[in-house]
Amino acid sequence: MTNQNSGSKFLRVSAQLLLVLVISGCQTSRNYYRAESIPKGLAVIPQANPQEVDLTRLASVSGSSEMIGPGDLLNVAIAAGLGKDDLVERTARVGSDGFAPIPGIGRVELAGNEPQGAEALIRMEAVNKGLYLNPTVTVSVVQKKMNRIRVIGAVKEPQIYELPPNASDVVSAIAAAGGLADNAGENVEIRNPKRGGSVQRPSVAGGSNLPYSTVSDSTEVSGDGMNSYSINLISASVSGTNSYNIQDGGVVMVEKRDPAPLQVTGLVNKPDTYDYPIGKPLTVLGAISKAGGLSNQLADKVFVIRPLANPGDRALIEVSLRKAKRNPKSDLVLGPGDIVSVEQTAGTVFLEALQLIRVGITGSAGIF
Q1: Distance CA 188, CA 190 (A)
Q2: Tell me: the pLDDT tens digits for 294-337?
């Protein structure tokens, strides 16, 4: 019975060998290519990983943490003499225009100064108006104005964060949210509340000459009254622009990558569907390694079936494993949705036939 089964398997393997010999070299599809000669439009360009890019160049140039800004609540004390009755102490909030109403003196522009500088400005204004001869002024920040910014998308801890206005930039917002997640893409959308007039923002130097997309040329206003624009982290970090600031009530949305998985099939030990790696190039040899290596040591021919732009259209790319091991240019870089099929050849069928003969004669598996 064992010999009959072995004979049947041998006939089946022989039929496979005949089929391989018949179809070998008959790839006539208009979308058939070899790995070394695929057109540029079909080649996969490895995408950069935003997590490996220096984003510090996008951070705003922050002033001192003691610097007074719009919205800060100040405590102002003015003493005309040594007695308690000569002391005037009030709170004052800095307006959006940078001026603060100082009791008995009037509006004084304090934003952009540290408390010591604000004290000198108030003292000078009081003397100029003839209100005091030589007053002692003390200014302290009671409460700093904070911007509430929502960070969502591909970050580790998406939620609402409070950031000081002088550090409300895209990098600080992402850092507050724990940094970029593993599936983060290159693009970030920033939405700021519309507060009259157009929002000025920088464009990326170099424009279309850069290998990645840049910010759009115009700010769009969404249906909810938010000014919205997008930046590309890779391009922006190259240009070093540091003016991507976020206003109070703004939203930062980091793009999520969700690439189609890879399928590895044929003469491999673990044929299966595998996640496409984000930000890391994967070649044919790497995909076969993911699939547990070759199940037939004589396997050499690999077909990569690549989806094209038109639905249903596919390209067939032939890769030689022997060439790929010798020359990196022959080791095709894979893209999302690719199917990697390690094919039967005359050599692999012959090896399987020898293994079956070995089993039939000795009852043991394999000859290698």
Answers
A1: 7
A2: 999 999 999 999 998 888 889 999 999 999 999 999 999 999 99
261 contact partners, CB below 8 Å, separation of at least 6:
273, 274, 275, 276, 336, 337
Which residues have C-beta within 8 Å of that of residue 352, sequence separation ≥ 6? 13, 16, 296
Which of 1.25.40.10, 3.10.560.10, 3.20.20.70, 3.30.230.10 is the CATH number of 2-48+260-362?
3.10.560.10
Distance CA 317, CA 50 (A): 30
Q: Is the pTM of this model over 0.70?
A: no
The one-letter code for the residue type at 145 is K
